[in-house]
Specification:
2 domains, eight-stranded mixed β-sheet, alpha+beta, Rieske Iron-sulfur Protein, FAD/NAD(P)-binding domain, binds flavin-adenine dinucleotide, 25 strands
Length: 454
């Protein structure tokens, strides 16, 4: 069985696509085939451009294939934060962009007759902790200021709900979009990692599998940057959560604002995020300014980025798809300024300052004086060991055989940690992940861990 296989991956067979094994030319290259990359390809498919999508692994294989896939505009406490650190206008624009995106997704499903277990439901935020009651009431007031009707669920101390939200099967949706794109001439390539993007006069050259792709426009739909340009890796962090499929059922989508709990229904049960969840994990990127980065990396550069969905990428991918299409076509878009990549918010940074400091402390400082001895590593576990004065990452397999690696993440040389729950190596600084044998699973790192001998 495949590692970290999600409920979605078990219930659909995704299309298989060729690898890049020759030089290519295109008008637009989209890097990444998650919800963001594929939604954009669908928006561009009927324009007079040659569009190529390049994926380092397989279509929908990363976060979009591991999400809980709620289709809702009730994005946790985001509205409250946007109102607090920006103003109500920002919060309203964010809301409107996601409402439009949800409507667009619904209309695509209808127009293309996509069977993706789409089901309308109500989505709720709730608390049973008196401390959090004012927070929910503030969010409720904001929605009332937007002239939106809200609901309450009497089983919670305080709650806010919205009608006409939805759930779907994200991989069935992505698969259908890919097929529609292919019918219109969009080419998808898998197992083709983009290593480098360089500007060459008015064009871009992408290095992929020792071949080159030349194009006019390039879009990074990779969730988190593998490029260092613009230092976006330092303006965003990644967060990981575990999800369980369980038999219990209920029709509403739920999210607690105090303890770590989320639920959504699926056909024959429900998906849960809580302390016990362990069936599979997913990573998403969180922007330190509180607003996703969707737009040109630099003005007039024809190089675009889509990062920082902070666990709301189902509707935000559609926001990004429409916005990037409008930017390429030089059309007006009401949300261009909101998602523009050209501003930062130092006041918002306060929300995450401690977390980020902790990431760097764990990656650069702690492991240099807090390490294990070889005997302290149990079978099927890993850890950082000091051996003849040098730090090593060691995984002991079922038989007790040691697999030894350099502990330095190839991305920025932070020292990796062993995650016992998911049995992976993870970099505390930028959250690149590696399997127990040191093979890279998820970026920003483009390389596996270096093997070492003892
Ligand atoms: C636990 C959890 C639950 C969530 N639940 C919800 C939810 O209920 N509703 C909601 O709206 N959102 C939810 N999200 C968020 C949502 O799933 C994500 O925001 C969204 O899937 C991200 O899509 P993406 O296309 O940006 O990223 P991905 O799906 O990760 O796709 C990026 C792709 O880029 C590829 N790539 C990266 N680097 C390269 C390279 N160098 N060359 C080629 N390809 C590359 C990767 O292989 C990957 O396939 C959740 C997130 C998490 C973590």
């Amino acid at each position: 069985m495949r590692m970290n296989q999600s409920y979605w991956q078990k219930t659909v067979k995704m299309p298989e696509c060729p690898i890049v094994n020759t030089d290519l030319k295109a008008d637009i290259v989209i890097i990444g085939s998650g919800m963001a990359g594929v939604s954009l390809a669908y928006q561009l498919k009927d324009l007079p451009y040659r569009v190529i999508v390049v994926e380092k692994d397989m279509i929908g294989y990363h976060t979009s294939g591991h999400t809980t896939g709620k289709l809702t505009v009730l994005h946790g406490i985001n509205y409250d934060l946007l109102n607090k650190y920006y103003d109500i206008h920002y919060a309203y624009l964010y809301y409107l962009s996601n409402v439009e995106a949800l409507e667009t997704i619904k209309s695509i499903i209808e127009k293309e007759h996509i069977e993706c277990d789409f089901c309308e439901n109500e989505a709720y935020l709730y608390t049973n902790d008196p401390q959090y009651v004012p927070l929910i009431q503030d969010i409720e007031q904001l929605f009332h200021a937007f002239h939106v009707e809200t609901l309450k669920d009497p089983q919670y101390l305080e709650s806010i709900g919205l009608k006409h939200q939805a759930v779907f099967h994200p991989l069935k949706y992505i698969k259908a979009l890919v097929e529609k794109c292919q019918e219109s001439g969009v080419d998808f390539y898998e197992h083709s990692q983009v290593e480098r993007v360089i500007r060459n006069h008015n064009n871009y050259i992408l290095d992929v599998n020792h071949k080159q792709i030349e194009c006019q426009y390039v879009v990074h739909a990779t969730r988190y940057p593998f490029i260092k340009k613009g230092m976006f890796f330092a303006k965003i962090f990644q967060t990981k959560e575990n999800i369980d499929y369980r038999k219990q059922n209920g029709m509403k989508s739920l999210l607690s604002v105090d303890i770590h709990k989320s639920y959504r229904p699926v056909k024959d049960g429900g998906l849960y995020i809580d302390q016990e969840s362990q069936n599979w994990y997913a990573l998403d990127s969180v922007p330190l300014r509180g607003v996703p980065y969707i737009g040109e990396i630099k003005p007039d550069s024809k190089e675009y980025i889509i990062y920082g969905f902070q666990k709301w990428g189902m509707t935000l991918s559609q926001v990004a798809a429409t916005l990037i299409k409008d930017l390429i076509l030089k059309r007006e878009n009401a949300y261009k300024e909101l998602y523009s990549c050209q501003y930062f918010s130092f006041s918002f940074l306060k929300e995450y300052q401690r977390k980020i400091m902790n990431h760097y402390y764990m990656g650069f400082i702690k492991p240099r004086f807090d390490y294990l001895t070889m005997n302290e590593i149990h079978k099927e576990e890993g850890g950082i060991v000091r051996y003849h004065g040098k730090l090593l990452a060691i995984y002991k397999d079922k038989q007790g055989l040691c697999h030894v690696f350099s502990p330095y993440c190839p991305h920025m040389k932070c020292i990796i940690q062993f995650d016992k729950k998911n049995k992976i190596w993870i970099c505390p600084c930028h959250q690149s992940t590696y399997d127990v044998y040191g093979r890279k699973l998820d970026g920003p790192s483009l390389k596996s861990l270096k093997k070492k001998k003892i």
